[in-house]
Amino acid sequence: MKKMILPLTFFFTTALTATGATASDALVTPESISYAQVQSVQGAETYTYVKCWYRPSTTHDDVATTWKWALDENGDYFTLPGYWYSSVSFKNMFYTDIPQSEIKARCDSTVGMSHETADMTYFAADTRMSYNHSVWTNDKTAKSGHINKIISFGDSISDTGNLYNGSQWIFPNRNSWFLGHFSNGFVWTEYLAEAKDLPLYTWAVGGAAGTTKYVALSGIHDQVDSYLTYMKMAKNYNPQNSLFTIEFGLNDFVNYNRSVSDVSNDFDRALKKLIANGANNIVVLNLPDATKAPQFKYSDPEEAKVIKAKITAFNQFVAQEVMLFRMQGVNITLYDTSTLFENLTKDPAQYGFRNAQDACMNINRSSSFDYLISHSLTNDCASYGSDSYVFWGVTHPTTQAHKVIAEQVEQSVFKYFNFK
After folding, report:
1. In terms of C-beta density within 10 A (0-12 exposed, 13-18 middle, 19 or more buried), how is residue 174 classed?
2. What would the pLDDT profile of 292-342 be if each residue is shown by its tens digit?
3. Is 153:201 a contact under the CB 8 Å cutoff?
4. Residue pair 387/360 in contact by the 8 Å Cβ criterion
5. Which of 33, 74, 117, 247 could be bridged to 285 by S-S, CB 3.0 to 4.6 A?
6. Which of 196, 181, 211, 188 is nearest to 242 (CA)?
7. Which pLDDT tens digit goes with each residue over 16-43?
């Protein structure tokens, strides 16, 4: 949803060259991985440590985070046995048989923070300088009969740190955005996972569109390919046991001026590939009217009209697409984010907000460079608190707004899925 401007091309190219992203990274596809490669990766047993990240502050107004190494019950470093997806790429994941509940318990015990705003999360890391890598817990058996994890695709609304890792922890700035999130705390998928006590695995990338625009900004189809590639290395994985969430399209219309037909083709192609590879439980979010975000105070009104028309047309296509797949027997459900967002901005008080027109942070323009620097809060937001605002910056929702989205999704569509 953010306004991308030309100099960011240089920024992303420079940052990703430094991280060691190469053409070979981009060329890895699920089809190109052999059985021997899978056996080699799964057989490279090692161990790693766990970084427990948390917010010391008891308010969402303060996004500052810190971390501690997870400790075991004896006070020694807690170690995870398992194997890495890769020994060289910054795009990485650690696979283990240790349950997520045990890892979380070790972090809870180590951190010792019980306040609701701590937003504790954890990652695999070999050293202090390691990036934050997801920990995948292998299933004990491929047959469980119920959903045991959530997997998300999309853009900055669902990104929990992928672009942050890809930009060497530069984008977005940690002084104003919560640890790689385009918000001041957890995003909606994290609240969903928390509500169901399930692990969340995120392939969503801030700034992503239907197609890949820069090395780090994986388009929706490349996100699906990446997921399929990583799942080749997971033991006993059955996609029937995963709930998939998909949302994308705003960047295509707001930032890249793409056509509705092109973005619709991207959506159709990605969804078909996901379903062809076993995905059966899917939640799709349609697009909110982004022109109601504060950033459009600084945009051309005529441009806003064009974008709004594209969003409306795309949402009509998405509704038809979901209906088509449902008729084919796929357990796919559409959540109407558009109507929720309309209600949020028209009558914020019914959801506990007092401001749905302004940014909580003191930003008075629409520029991607604002994600590289720190910002203070407006006097009003500092007085009433960020939880009273719908928007954190000029584009993205506050974590409280994300919580409302998650609650509405859970109440509306979770009844269609088989949770334990």
Report:
1. middle
2. 999 999 888 999 999 999 999 999 999 999 999 999 999 999 999 999 999
3. no
4. no
5. 247
6. 196
7. 333 333 233 444 566 678 888 888 888 8
CA pair distance 407, 210, nearest whole angstrom: 27
Is-contact 84 46, C-beta < 8 A? yes
Please compute Rg for the chain using Cα positions.
Answer: 20
How sure is the predictor about 209, in pLDDT bands with cuts at 50, 70 and 90? low
Degrees to nearest 5, angle at CA 395 with 391 and 397: 35
Give the separation between CA 193 and CA 197, rounded to whole angstroms.
6
Domains assigned to the chain: 7-26+141-416 (3.40.50.1110), 33-138 (no CATH)
**Residues 257-297 pLDDT 10s:** 999 999 999 999 999 999 999 999 999 999 999 999 999 99
DSSP state of 378: P
Which residue in the block uniquely carries the two structure tokens 């974590």?
A: 399
